[in-house]
Design brief:
alpha/beta; 12 helices
């Protein structure tokens, strides 16, 4: 049995020309005319929701320099700077096209832009930041597919297999039993790299293969979690859902306290009979389908907020 590495870097460098086909939670909340506005407990964009959520969990005045990697159109950082214009911000992105969109969104603000692969940055680069944001991006990091327990236990000189074996032993990560599985190597190494750099606050969110309980509609929302990373087919590339329990374990072993949950913690919804009807019905109404898809995404997305002890 052989493995393969899912690497999206070529697409993001050479093929990326829009995010319009990928309706992220961040982009879904941009329009104030969206039907989603009417189901929120508070009408605000993701960046505003996220800033307020994090502010209640950090020491006042402890964040000055913020790095966002893979910042999409720059909407989250725009909102952070609206809430706190004194932040010194850096946008790090592998995509030249997205970096140009970020420059337009953040024009005139105190932001530096770096076109570079996260994994090509010197470890010392990260030590200058108080907070790092990886919002809806770590699923694009390299993932190793076609693995098996037997493959990881064989003697080999293969550097990828040996690296995965080293990480599993070092952080006591689970090695799955029968059948093939995927290992989120890039996400694991990203968490290790940032925690080792000693950054005070690290926020990471992405589609999860595990899920967290909570939220007003956890009893009726139609989502399932297999417990192992799943492939998501996207335009020109594909990514994998993340195993958040492994990322949490790494951060804790490296001296971090970790808050874990799903997006309903960050973006509270109204608790209403109308939303319950929409979630439990099979209506083909376009507005209802948009709402169902969005609420399901709030449960599919997990976050980790890692705080150095």
């Amino acid at each position: 049995m052989t493995y393969s590495i899912n690497d999206t870097s070529d697409y993001h460098i050479n093929g990326m020309d829009t995010l319009g086909w990928e309706l992220t939670v961040c982009n879904a909340l941009e329009s104030r005319n969206s039907p989603l506005v009417n189901i929120l407990a508070r009408d605000a964009t993701l960046g505003i929701h996220l800033y307020d959520f994090l502010q209640t969990r950090i020491d006042p005045g402890s964040v000055c320099r913020v790095l966002e990697t893979g910042g999409g159109y720059g909407f989250v950082m725009r909102d952070f700077l609206v809430k706190n214009p004194g932040l010194q911000s850096v946008m790090l992105d592998i995509s030249p096209w997205l970096l140009e969109q970020q420059k337009k969104t953040l024009s005139g603000k105190n932001v530096n832009f770096i076109e570079k692969d996260f994994f090509q940055c010197d470890p010392g680069f990260f030590r200058g930041f108080d907070m790092v944001l990886l919002n809806e991006v770590a699923g694009d990091f390299p993932a190793v597919t076609g693995l098996s327990s037997s493959l990881l236990t064989k003697d080999t000189q293969d550097p990828v297999i040996n690296r995965i074996r080293e990480l599993c032993l070092k952080y006591d990560l689970p090695v799955h039993g029968q059948g093939e599985f995927t290992f989120n190597l890039g996400a694991v190494e990203a968490v290790e790299r940032l925690c080792t750099a000693g950054i005070k606050y690290i926020y990471l969110s992405e589609h999860s293969c595990e899920g967290s309980p909570g939220g007003s509609y956890s009893d009726i929302v139609r989502v399932s979690f297999p417990g192992v990373p799943e492939k998501i087919q996207l335009r020109g590339h594909y990514e994998y859902t993340l195993k958040f329990s492994s990322l949490k374990r790494i951060a804790e072993k490296l001296g971090y306290s970790v808050i874990r949950g799903n997006y309903t913690d960050i973006i509270p919804l109204q608790d209403s009979p109308r939303i319950r009807f929409i979630l439990t019905s099979n209506t083909q109404n376009d507005e209802h389908e948009i709402i169902r898809h969005f609420v399901e995404d709030l449960y599919k997305y997990e976050y980790l907020f890692m705080i150095r002890d």
